[in-house]
Amino acid sequence: MTEEQKYTVERKFPKFEVRRYEACVFADVTVSADFQSAGSIAFRSLIGYISGSNEPNTTIAMTSPVIQESKSENSSTKIAMTSPVIQESSNHLQIVSFVMPAGMTLDDLPLPTNSKVTLRQMPEQLVAVARFTGRWTESAYQRQLAQLRQQLDQNGMTEISAPRYARFDPPWTPSFLRRNEIQIPIATPTQ
Q1: What is the pLDDT of residues 17-35, one digit of tens each?
Q2: How wide is the angle at C-alpha 70 spanned by C-alphas 167 and 161, nearest 5°?
Q3: Rounded Cα–Cα distance for residues 51 and 32 (Å)
Q4: Which residues of the chain have pLDDT under 50?
Q5: Which of 5, 22, 47, 70 is disulfide-compatible with 82, CB 3.0–4.6 A?
Q6: How far apart are CA 56 and CA 86, in angstroms?
Q7: To the nearest 5 percent, what fractions of the chain are helix, strand and coil?
Q8: Dist CA 162 CA 184 (whole Å)
Q9: pLDDT of the residue at 109
Q10: Which residues in 32-52 are b (16+ Cβ under 10 Å) and which e?
Q11: Mind listing the domains of the chain with CATH numbers?
Q12: What pLDDT shows up at residue 191?
């Protein structure tokens, strides 16, 4: 079974939950592509990295989800690596990330030999997450994102970083069985 990014559920709401994700390392690839194709374009470089296109040709276990988020060319948004793939509008650069296995640090990981792949340490973070099934389309992403943002607003939660689109299943999985998530990093609520 594929390892998933480590987290604990802090609080459950009817339409979403708040998770605390452990610190981890992301392998990122940034592409200039539309929402539908960004994941496919970046996937090859990322799968190459974990399959041994690195120094010293070491394989790394696949984890899930693959995450994609859009990044304005002028922003400095942090990207999380997991599976699913996270993706947004075609007006932005798309960052597609694989989460490295739990417990691995930047010092533990082999260096990428493909210049498109970069490694980034992600700190522990609090994230609001809404799960849904269905096809990987921009319209589904936008609809789910709007609903989660509305829920955050109604519950007095503050978004602190770009939303992510997480995909957990391979493309051959029937859409009604696919696990997808919208993930929005949020500020720690003050009590």
Answers
A1: 999 999 999 999 999 988 8
A2: 90
A3: 24
A4: 73-82, 86-90
A5: 5
A6: 29
A7: 20, 35, 45
A8: 7
A9: 96
A10: ebebeebbebbbebbebbbee
A11: 3-185 (3.20.80.10)
A12: 52
